[in-house]
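haha ok so turns out i had the wrong file open the whole time. this is the CORRECT one, sorry everyone. sequence first:
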Amino acid sequence: MTKKRVIEGIETWREHQSSYQANDFEMMYDDWIRDSFSRISPEVKQKFFSKLDGWLFHTHAFLQSSAFQNDARERILMVGRIFQSNVTHIEDMKQLDVNQLTYIADQQVARGRLYSFAQGGLTGTGGWLLLGIDFPLMTILNLRAVQLVGLTFGHEMNHPYEMMISFKVFHAAMLPKRLQEAAWDQLIEEIKLTQHPYVYEGEDQLTDETWFEQPMKQAFKSLFILVFKRKLFQGIPLISVAVGAYSNYQLTKQMTEFAMKFYQYRHLLMEKEV
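then structure:
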């Protein structure tokens, strides 16, 4: 893959985003969400979203201290040294060109999608414990997948600025497609205007009403699994397992695709290629 093809891939993806038209159901859902949240007092909403943001920050801290994440960092650096022998720290990955970084990131993305597929399949067995932890676990897996793409492109997630950017990429990637174009434009404007690459000076609120469509979809998926978990084939609820695996895989695919395009664009922007 040449650099030109990477740029063309980003442009094609952006055109697809721009041309997406919300259907009547999505517009009705937007109106329902806005109307529902308008009935809640601003203080209650602020407290709720603050707690949700706090949970994401705790999730980030857990990920960064886990052996699972440290092993992934070492794998990224090890593959990076195949292309550049002097790669010793995550920031050194920026020495690689966009094609090499995309190749390494693709390995992380493929592994993340496999984890989501397997986790969704297990959830599809219909166990109450697995259903109960499905969305929190999917949030952890997808945040990790987004941050591993960022690490691959040389951005250290322990730095406050990079941590916040990864959160905003995660938030934007989880939004419904009709809202992603505006979120993308906001992200690109933010990194272009950055004065201090280590200190985050932008808006620190992560979640809001627009973020709730995906949790609602996960709730409907859980309901579907409960309905079909008794439809067994040789003792296995194949329909609910297939729905759980496919749903979680598609979500991770959407999120990692957004993250990949963003970090590719950011790398090219640093090289003045876009």
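The chain has eleven helices and no strands.
again sry for the mixup
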